Amino acid sequence: MKTLAPYIFASIDAGERDRLRLLAQLLDPLHRKALSTTRIGPGLSSLELGAGTGTVSAWIAGTAGPTGQVLATDLNTEFLHQAAHPNVVVEQLDALRDPLPEARFDLITARALLHHLPGWAQVVKKCVAALKPGGSLVLVEPDATTSVLNTDPMHHRFWSAWCRWGGTEGVDYRIGHKLTGVMREAGLEVTDTSIDVPFYQGGSDWATLYAQTVDATMPRAGERIEPDLVEAFQRATVDPSQWLCSFGWVAVTGRRATTKREGGSWCPPRPR
């Protein structure tokens, strides 16, 4: 079996903290909107995988009230401890390798995590088993197929090369459109889907986020991507005359059924 390189954003320096904060600022609205399609409310027991800076876990905790609890997990919890909340419990967890308790949570969510995991479909199955009957799984992941919408051919070529490099590292930057199929195969009813495709100006927050993300990978990705493509990308992200499209962000909500049929599989109750 191929041995994959370590997680490409494993740094815990100030630059990675700032990148995660900007990611949260830009994606929290989409994530909260998707979470709001679930039965979120007081007393909720929830789990966030790859919780980053903890902004989503804190928001869920505020919605669940004093009787609810959120387990916020990450491979490295350095930045999670900066987003403390009375109803948030922080734990280190490897989503790919560590077990989850069965039928424990009303809600499980993850954002910008699964595309880094070569065995991500197994993580989805693990999450389904950890949901209570009627519980929901909310996933938010990128899909770089939207980079074809760029009018600048060099920018599109850069993202195509970057995605090919990601594949050599076990990272799937086109995961978004695959989520619904895997969630259905895992036994969930898909109840809501959406995609946000940011068109952004050079020099904007979105441009800064993607520039920071690419800069963090260059020590490894730079050997696989033509220098002229990297230079064209860097120029475009700081040029206010450029309007760009990189990743779409896909949000999918699935619900575990609430009753049990003979044979042990979960399914919705039949109408009377």
Describe this structure in words.
There is one protein chain. The chain is of the alpha/beta class and 272 residues long. It has helices spanning 14-35, 55-64, 120-130, 153-168, 179-185, 205-221, 227-237, and strands at residues 45-49, 69-74, 88-92, 105-111, 131-143, 189-196, 199-201, 243-245, 248-255, 259-260, 266-267. A seven-stranded mixed beta sheet has the order 3-2-1-4-5-9-6. The chain has a two-stranded antiparallel sheet with strand order 7-8. The longest helix is centred in the first third of the chain and has 22 residues, at 14-35. Residues 1-6 and 261-272 have low confidence and may be disordered.
Tally of separate helices: 7
Elements, N to C (H/E): HEHEEEHEHHEEHHEEEE
Structural class: alpha/beta
Rg: 19 Å
Describe the structure using short key phrases.
two-stranded antiparallel sheet, disordered N terminus, alpha/beta, disordered C terminus, 7 helices, 272 residues
Summarize the structure.
The protein has about 270 residues and is of the alpha/beta class. The chain has helices spanning about 15-35, 55-65, 120-130, 155-170, 180-185, 205-220, 225-235; strands spanning about 45-50, 70-75, 90, 105-110, 130-145, 190-195, 200, 245, 250-255, 260, 265.
Give the helix/strand layout.
Elements: H1 14-35, E1 45-49, H2 55-64, E2 69-74, E3 88-92, E4 105-111, H3 120-130, E5 131-143, H4 153-168, H5 179-185, E6 189-196, E7 199-201, H6 205-221, H7 227-237, E8 243-245, E9 248-255, E10 259-260, E11 266-267
Parallel strand pairs: 1-2, 1-4, 2-3, 4-5
Antiparallel strand pairs: 5-9, 6-9, 7-8, 10-11
